[in-house]
Amino acid sequence: MLTTNEQDTWINPRDPARAVGPDGRPARSRRAPYYADVPDEQWDSWKWQLSNRVNDLETFAQILELTDSEREGLGAPDKFRVDITPYFISLIDAADPNDPIRRQVIPLGEEQEAFTAMMDDSLREDQHSPVPGLVHRYPDRVLMLVTTQCAVYCRYCTRSRIVGDATQNFNSRDFEAQLDYLRRTPQVRDVLLSGGDPLTMAPKLLERVLRGLREIEHIEIIRMGTRVPVFMPQRIDDDLCEMLERYHPMWVNLHFNHPNEITPEVSRAVDRLSRTGVPIGNQSVLLAGVNDCVHIQRDLVHKLVENRIRPYYLYQCDLVAGAGHFRTPVGKGLEIIEGLRGHTSGYAVPTYVVDAPGGGGKIPVMPNYLISYSDHKVVLRNYEGYITTYEEPVDYVPHDRRACAYCRNQRSEPGQSGVHGLLQGDAMWIEPAGHAEIHARGNTEAHRLQSPEKWVPYGVGPLEGQVAPAQAKLGSGDERPEYGPGEEPRPREGEPTGSAHGELL
């Protein structure tokens, strides 16, 4: 047992936030020779870092040994915005053109090359936006874009259509419209702040947004997606932490792609943030030439959990302009998950997802561990190829939704029960848009054999055991009143929340 004096002086050698350098002071990452004369007081100021970002070819050439492709990318007249903090550019090996940090933030000539399926808005965020800057894709949560500005601009940015463009930034009227929509939409319980990067906002403006959200009673969770602690850990100061602490429950997701991004400064910033009670996760993007290696990914997730950061998502690269040279096959992501699951702790394994082109949201993808199944047995395999069976119970009593208070009182958005709704008996099928019209073969009037009542399944749908009213026209869908955004009525008590037969989900 340590004495009182030993407890005061002992340093945990495994705590990355307490790492010290050869001089006995808190450890520091390397600083590019170009910044050798910058005083520590300036270097440690996030405002100085933000004000002194590198964005011109001449300065880049003084810091890095630029390749021809980099010179071409930096010189392109219509390139996506370039800005890099002095701290982050200092982490780059000036002589290594394949440095993983370098590849993420220095444009190449390849950015200008189009590729099959490339889109400006591959996730259709703007289509799923009831008001500017608010994306409502999932039933109970929204993405709230609060700025178009970042500390550094990632070359694979999924929102490069607006990010970095000051003319596209959001203002007080946009924030009020976003908040008004949320006030009118009680099914929303979770709001994710993103952009751009919320931590580049003026502190008072950010707090105004947070306060506005906390004044809405049905908003339970506020999340923030930010890469500022990676690009500029100096931003995580006491003032920011004290402000965030006032708006709990708060969650923060960071964005590390490579172990080289986790420096002593980052470890201290993350430690400070976590001590405010903020749970911290990480989202990575699978990038060719950066982290498309199971050993890099394993080292990354180990460093993350060592810093008390939970690996959350590993994203397949989106189909956005400028990102073609970063894309990998989906099979590479599956290979990486095979090399993580079972080879490291379960909490260190992120969920590998494809954010569906066209706006389908995040689709998890994983190796097939389920080999086969019957009515009484499931056949499974583990990461080693070990094959086993799980015997299914023969006396399982199904959950009674009618007797369950949680089922009766669920708060979901009508029409978005999806595949889970099929399993719950809310509907019997999901029809693609235009399916009924196509199969009507041009017939617009129901003939004597075509009563829609024939195709309403008994006991499935919002009104148990009742037949829905017949439709006058084929393929016309439900004749329901039109509601404005966020004005859809909540289901009555005891009434399932799924769609009726024939509704397009």
Structural notes for this entry:
It is a single chain. The chain is α/β, with parallel strands linked by helices. It is 25% helix and 12% strand. The strands form 2 sheets. It has a 9-stranded mixed β-sheet with strand order 1-2-3-4-5-6-7-8-9. Among the domains are: 20-111, no CATH class; 369-396, no CATH class; 401-505, no CATH class. Mean pLDDT is 89; it is low at 463-492 and 495-505.
Task: List the defining traits of the structure above.
about 500 residues; globular; alpha/beta; three-stranded antiparallel sheet; about 10% strand; single chain; nine-stranded mixed sheet
SSE blueprint:
Blueprint: H1 4-9, H2 40-43, H3 46-51, H4 57-63, H5 68-75, H6 86-89, H7 100-105, E1 134-138, E2 141-145, H8 172-183, E3 190-194, H9 203-214, E4 221-225, H10 228-231, H11 238-245, E5 250-254, H12 264-274, E6 280-285, H13 294-306, E7 310-315, H14 330-340, E8 351-356, E9 361-364, E10 370-373, E11 377-381, E12 387-391, H15 405-408, H16 418-424, H17 435-439
Parallel strand pairs: 2-3, 3-4, 4-5, 5-6, 6-7, 7-8
Antiparallel strand pairs: 1-2, 8-9, 10-11, 11-12
Helix pairs in contact: 13-14
